[in-house]
Design brief:
Elements lengths: L16 H10 L4 H16 L36 H9 L4 H6 L2 E6 L2 E7 L1 H5 L3 E3 L1 H7 L1 H4 L13 H9 L3 E6 L9 E6 L6 E2 L2 E6 L4 E9 L7 E3 L2 E6 L4 E9 L4 E11 L4 E8 L4 E4 L2 E4 L5 E10 L4 E10 L5 E10 L4 E10 L7 E10 L5 E10 L5 E10 L2 H9 L4 H17 L4 H18 L2
Parallel strand pairs: 1-5, 4-7, 5-8, 6-9, 7-10, 8-11, 9-12, 10-12, 11-13, 12-14, 12-15, 13-16, 14-17, 15-17, 16-18, 17-19, 18-20, 19-21, 20-22
Antiparallel strand pairs: 1-2, 3-4
């Protein structure tokens, strides 16, 4: 590791102004960005930790490392990535995935993007896929007007912390009428102990465009806690469509406290596909503001909570315009004493006539020690809205297990089949290669729940 890079123990401790100024100086940022960072730090100090949701008492913010850089620059050639980092990502399928089924790929290791590549034909069409620091430098006229407008620093304590310490992430710009035929993907890796990762992602889809963005998240297991606190902002212009898929497999020492929000204009479509397998604690509620007439929003989520895990996830749908539609499908599995929760908000404004919304929230509990919670909130301020909400809690029955095992199917396989069938309505929304990977992760979870 290069000793002249900004990798210093001075970035450990209670977040303070000196740390923010040092990071901004290392990045050679403009004064207005530093100002926003300092505003975020002040909001973070003023806000208390959330008293609802998961228990955050095991997260020691003063012990975190708030910035760690592993390479001096972002590489455009895979061969130029340092061997120890490249080896880690190759185990996760890079660059094989890039060659086979990705239009572009980015890899973040610790606090910075270490590799980024986009297929030339997309660049020729004006598609931009890069990291925020590069976007601020090379495309300020596109990036700056939207940055921090969908998710403001004051949204919550951890969005404020991200505003102060943001580093890495993705910036995607899709020009008018351009359809990106293959997914773009970023891999996020926390590889160090007690690290805080604060990436920032901004997607702008111009009128009548389409893009599918996929993010994967991993980390090795440590005894001490790490924090992932990303912020995602999505702007969907009229008639555009954005699909944002997350397959999270953090290790069980990671607190995943992420803020995601999309703003959808007339006739646009936003779809969050959100998978939560790992982490000690997850608090994540993808939000969609339907602010243009005829806009559509969907959230499809699946969650697995095992021993020592609390997955508190959900969705926020805000109908601000008439004739908007939304759908939320949430599936959760809890086992080994794990706790899964759905926390949802549905809001319909007085002027939002002709709204249609449907929410389905299903929980599968595999043993008596595990639990599932549902916290739906509805604020319906228009009497002609058509709102549907249904929820169910079930267990795998002894009869089902006996039937499968009597046909020669081992216990782990039987349980995996039943869980896969339960999750199928959400998993089918994934691209095939990601669905296969998810099924593998589910099997590993089931193996841990047996014996």
């Amino acid at each position: 590791m290069n000793s002249d890079l900004p990798i210093k123990n001075s970035y450990v401790g209670d977040p303070d102004e000196r740390m923010v100024r040092d990071i901004s100086e290392h990045k050679k940022e403009a004064d207005w960005i530093l100002k926003k960072r300092l505003e975020g730090l002040e909001i973070f100090r003023q806000k208390a930790l959330p008293s609802w949701g998961a228990d955050l008492s095991g997260l020691y913010l003063k012990d975190l490392l708030y910035y760690l850089r592993s390479t001096p620059r972002t590489e455009r050639s895979w061969e130029e990535v340092p061997s120890e980092i490249k080896e880690t990502f190759e185990q996760l399928g890079i660059p094989e995935a890039e060659r086979k089924y990705l239009a572009g790929v980015s890899a973040q290791y610790e606090s910075e993007t270490v590799y980024q590549s986009t297929r030339q034909y997309l660049s020729d069409k004006g598609v931009i896929f890069t990291d925020p620091e590069t976007a601020l430098r090379d495309h300020p006229d596109i990036f700056a007007p939207y940055w921090g407008t969908v998710v403001e620093a004051g949204n919550n304590k951890f969005s404020a912390l991200n505003s102060a310490f943001f580093s890495g992430g993705s910036f995607i710009y899709i020009p008018k009428g351009v359809k990106v035929d293959l997914p773009l993907q970023t891999y996020f890796r926390i590889n160090s102990e007690r690290l805080g990762q604060f990436e920032r992602t901004l997607i702008i889809a111009e009128e009548d465009s389409f893009v599918h963005y996929v993010e994967g998240c991993t980390a090795p297991a440590y005894n001490s806690s790490s924090l992932h606190s990303g912020v995602v902002e999505v702007v969907v212009k009229p008639g555009a469509e954005v699909v944002y898929t997350t397959v999270q497999n953090w290790s069980h020492n990671v607190y995943n406290l992420t803020t995601k929000r999309a703003r959808v204009q007339a006739g646009g479509v936003m779809r969050w596909i959100d998978g939560n397998i790992g982490s000690r604690v997850t608090m994540k509620y993808p939000a969609i503001e339907l602010c243009g007439e005829g806009a559509t929003g969907e959230v499809h989520s699946f969650t697995s909570a095992g021993k020592g895990q609390h997955q508190d996830v959900g969705a926020k749908i805000i109908h601000s315009a008439p004739h908007t539609t939304s759908q939320v499908i949430s599936k959760s599995v809890s086992q080994g004493g794990g706790r899964a929760g759905y926390r949802g908000l549905l809001s319909v404004a007085p002027e939002a006539h002709g709204v249609k919304s449907n929410t389905v929230c299903d929980a599968l509990i595999l043993d008596p020690e595990s639990s599932s919670d549902t916290y739906p909130v509805m604020r319906i301020n228009n009497s002609d809205a058509k709102i549907e909400h249904e929820a169910s809690v079930s267990r795998i029955s002894e009869e089902q297990m006996f039937y499968l095992q009597s046909r020669g199917i081992p216990e782990v396989e039987a349980k995996t089949l039943l869980v896969n069938g339960f999750l199928e309505p959400v998993v089918k929304e994934l691209p095939m290669e990601y669905a296969v990977e998810l099924n593998r992760l589910i099997r590993m979870e089931m193996e841990g729940s047996v014996g």
